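Pair request: fold both.
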Amino acid sequence: MLPESSVLIAVMNHTRDLKRARDEHWYRIPVRSAPKFFPPDYVAFYFTKPFSADAFSVRWYAQVRGHELVTRRDLLPNEPDHPRADQRYYKLQLGKLVELPHPIPSRSLRRITFILTNGKRLNEAWEINDLFLGPREHDSLWRALKEARLHAERNYVIRDASSTRAYSVDFAVICHEGTLGVICGDSPGRSEAEMPRAVRERLLYFTSTQIDASPKKCVEAIAAAAAQLGGPAESKTPT
């Protein structure tokens, strides 16, 4: 794998899918939820709860040797009456499964959909947040957060407990009394007016200039805001 190779981190929810990837060399992704960048050079698998001790981590990857558009009925002919039998899928044709030198865990056991990364980050990552590709200022703030040992989640979705709405933030610090969101960039592009007050009150904004000038000061502001929410909590529950 080259450092610049594209790698798609895909969710694997069932142990039988790992068996198919290992023995039959294919994996399916619904067309309706496939990422915009497709196909990748490699696919790596983020295990969920059914994988027990290996859950909420990336351990295996495979080269993508091709893909085709098929229906679920084509993939799984023994399940012709399944409700999604006619749904279209990308069938990724895989090479041999390769185990990473060490697993890449999610410290907060978070849910993800897809993460597009590259070979360099896959080989250097020690936790799931190390995989995210982002603008320069995002990477700079992430490094500063790690140096300060202030645990944060990248590209996080905050869910409002009082409604079904969800809001994306660039970073989140999960605290004892709520989740602190951080939005980076000169034009956030999000309408605060549409957010519930409880969400707005737990948001911090930093411009690219602020981050470039002193990522350390930004981290200090994040730490102070997190303290107002009871301090960071090492979450062990899917969020």
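--- second member of the pair ---
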Amino acid sequence: MRKLILLLVSCLWAISLQAQEHLKFKGVPIDGTLQEFVQKMKAKGFTSVGMQCGIAVLKGDFAGAKECTIGVGTLQGNNLVSKISVAFPEASNWLELYGRYCDLKEMLTEKYGSPSNCIEEFQRSYQPQDDADRFYEAKSDRCKFITTFSPSTGDIELRIAHGDYKCFVILSYFDGYNSYIVRKKAMDDL
């Protein structure tokens, strides 16, 4: 009897996972092969730029911002799309950088509910006194502004980032179901 109950619970669990929805980007489920997903993004108006380190790179407008760079990634060792990242255009000052971060955070909160985690701090013993100081701290990688949303379909991370002494906002989508599939496959190997 106990084996029958365990089998029934396992079957119900598998059925519920099969019915699991994928996180969506621009209304398109984050699923399928890299080539299939890139084609769907082209149909949404993005332009393919090429591949860099196994990541498909596209350009286009997103969430009211022009000329964003979009990276489409797959799970390691698998051609299953699992992550989309949008790098918004470089900001020229703190008000622009922080304003974009706050606008996106507000829209994401409206769509997905309260964040599951939010860290917004400068990483020095003193706090910057003005916007020029704040922008300098951001360019110097001494500010940590990360907000995470965790809908049932995956995770969404909004953050202030920098590179080559430039500052910008990055919004990343991580599909939960495809990550689970690959993890389950790895667990089966153990």
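Observation on the second member. Residues 2-189 form one domain.
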